[in-house]
Amino acid sequence: MNDPPPTTREQFTGRISRALGKAYAPGHVPHPPAVDDELARVCGDDGDLVSRFAERAAAVGVDVRRCTAGELCEALVDVVDELGIGSALLNTERLRQHRVLGDLLRGHGVELHEWRGDRAMAAGFAADAGITDAAGAIAESGSLVLATDGDHGRAGALAPPVHVAIVPASGVVADLLDWARALDADGGCAPPACRQLVTGPSKTADIEGVLVTGVHGPGRVVVLLIEDQ
Amino acid sequence: MNEQTAPVTHEGERVLFPPLPYDMRRRSDAAVKDDALRAAVEAATLTKDTARKATFAEAFGERYDALRGLAERIKQHTLDHLDYYLDQFIDHAEAAGATVHYAADAAEANRVCLGIAEREGVRACVKAKSMVTEEVRLLEALQAAGVETLETDLGEFILQLDGDAPSHIVTPMIHKDRASVGRAFERELGAAYTDEPDALTAIAREHLRDKYRRADMGVTGGNFLVAGSGSVVVCTNEGNGTFCASTPRVHVAVVGIEKLVPTFEHAAVLLKLLARSSTAQPLTVYTDILTGPKRRDEHDGPEQLHVVLVDNGRTELLADPVMRDTLRCIRCGACLNACPVYRTVGGHSYGAVYTGPIGALVTPMLKGLTNYPDLPQASSLCGACGEACPVNIDIPHLLVHLRNELNAQRVAGRAERRAFKLYAWVLKKPWRYRWASRLVRFVLRRRADDDGYVTRAPGPGKGWTETRDLPAPAKQSFRQWWKQNKRDEPQRHRDTEVN
């Protein structure tokens, strides 16, 4: 079989330019439409953002528990006991309590899966829970903001049936617009390979419109919201 | 497991790729009489349509229409400068380590994906739901080349397993009931029969987890391409898209060129509209922003990210001064849920990948108007689709435009020409009109049944009453009524003044 030669970038974009009545792609274009906050903003950044986030996250099916940094260990142990978590992937390197949390969980009989190297996904599939810290959260939609780097993988928030996310209150932004504008302003820096907004537990309503959680991703998302961090 | 079966109907033709030109009536006639199908589709679409309106009212209130205007301007601006933004996207995506491929048509899109699979020695592939991959028939191409490929969206997975085809842009198995899922799982997966959605979902979950781990390649679509960062944005509710983009060694994102937006800020405006329009959620559960493959210091994620940019007729659309508006579509499915025709005939009646009001525009444009002459007619022009559209595509207006195109191409038959000549003759004199309408009223009222409906109109009207009943005309014409009441009116006025 003789395949035609592949379309090149120049041919591909050139056709689009011609369809737009131009000879080639222009070097600059008029400013794109300005995004007016009056129109697009759902959540103002005044008032109690943390409460609003907690409320919206609960509305999309997240189990939100508020605590102080000092109460975090206790809150985590409660979750472990309540959900019968026997093994976990612990992905909280960014938190200053990381070492403490690890010791706490091990001391509580929770097996911690090694997840570095190429073992991350296997650990995720094996663990009862992924315990991760979140880069932030969005009040408007009740979303967690996750980002990958050397200390943060994708498996923990995805593969186990339970995801426990530790969110510092200082990371909560009001509106999706605030989150997006921060990314745009970040232009100079190399972005992470994967950013994620997680808005509730994995959901489907494909079978007769009946809502079922936990179809591929975690069926249970618990947020430990640290109010003084 | 029968994963190779291509979707067929009971008549033996492919549901989404029927022989052309396509005759919609062959399927819609049967669909209209299928009470179970109608009930299922109607219930699901009405629920979604109601929830959509409520969520927008709650989040944006009076601002909603202006917000749609903003979304329209963002998409239109990007389309007007698509070559510029595409260049920007390609530069940024490549800088982040992605490989960008160019597919002029469906065949090339499949060749690119097969080429990647071949070079990487891919044997098993998992696929997320994506309209453009359905449009180019990627699944079939991969399977024909010996790459075991599995749909992972629960609905699509069930349809693939059962040899059925999707019928809705967002909720693909809206036409199917739980019992048929139970039977398919029993037959194809050897599972004990159950019709509990929870249990069925658990069976699919276990089956697919193993597939994610074994797959060498994951295929997804993309809801947005962010020019400013070279990112692909993928929205799913189940998390299957995230798995497809995370566990396999190679991730291939196949995306239509109309998905570009300038910046994250613009993407955010459209994200605010997308899930609210689809399923009344503030965002889909998973919104993944993928920029290049996994970095060297990361521990999971794909080693390669390939972005396949698909044209496949979109450039021609872009050059069409009227129909290019359809490129703004973000595939939310709101117009399907709002459409009384879609609710009645279901998605398979459209005989194509894109269904409902937007499908009635996109399908003829991508596959030829003469191949799908019925689709622009499959609308009552009630306007619900246009009102539901979050990016302000004037769907009713564009449907009328396509109807005009069809009429311009078509040579009217002799009977039709004669009928219109007679009609013009009748309309030329008031007395002719009066007598003609009197005649029509007389004939139709005599034919009406006890409920006042004409079930079989005479002569050339027969076709009209084949699928619906015509209410019999009133005893009195409006003109007669007007004559009487006009005379009475001043009389009554005078009476009230006296009292």
Q: Please give the number of β-strands of chain B.
A: 12
The CATH top-level class label of the largest domain in chain B: Alpha Beta
The general outline of chain A is: globular
Could you tell me the radius of gyration of chain B in angstroms? 27 Å
- Principal-axes shape call of chain B: globular
Could you tell me how far the N terminus lies from the C terminus of chain A, measured between alpha carbons in angstroms? 63 Å
Secondary structure class of chain B reads alpha/beta
As a percent range, the share of strand residues of chain B is 5-15%
CATH H level of the largest domain in chain B: which superfamily? NagB/RpiA/CoA transferase-like
Number of domains of chain A: 1
Describe this structure in words.
The complex is a heterodimer of chains A (229) and B (499). With 229 residues, chain A is of the alpha/beta class. Chain A has one domain: 3-Layer(aba) Sandwich (Rossmann fold), CATH 3.40.50.10420. Chain A has 7 helices and 12 strands. In chain A, β5 (136-138) and β6 form a beta hairpin. The longest helix of chain A has 12 residues, at 72-83. Chain A starts with 8 loop residues before the first helix and ends with a strand. By secondary structure, chain B is of the alpha/beta class. Chain B has 2 domains: 24-316, NagB/RpiA/CoA transferase-like (Rossmann fold, 3-Layer(aba) Sandwich), CATH 3.40.50.10420; 431-498, no CATH class. Chain B has 21 helices and 12 strands. Chain B has helices spanning 24-33, 35-60, 64-80, 82-95, 106-119, 131-136, 138-144, 154-161, 178-189, 197-214, 240-246, 264-279, 314-319, 334-338, 340-345, 356-367, 384-388, 395-409, 414-428, 430-447, 478-498, and strands spanning 99-103, 124-127, 148-151, 217-220, 224-226, 231-236, 250-256, 260-261, 286-290, 304-310, 453-454, 470-471. In chain B, α3 crosses α12, α16 (356-367) runs parallel beside α18 (395-409) and α19 packs across α20. The longest helix of chain B has 26 residues, at 35-60. Chain B is globular, with a radius of gyration of 27 Å. Classes of the chains: A alpha/beta (229), B alpha/beta (499). β9 (194-198) of chain A pairs antiparallel with β9 (286-290) of chain B.
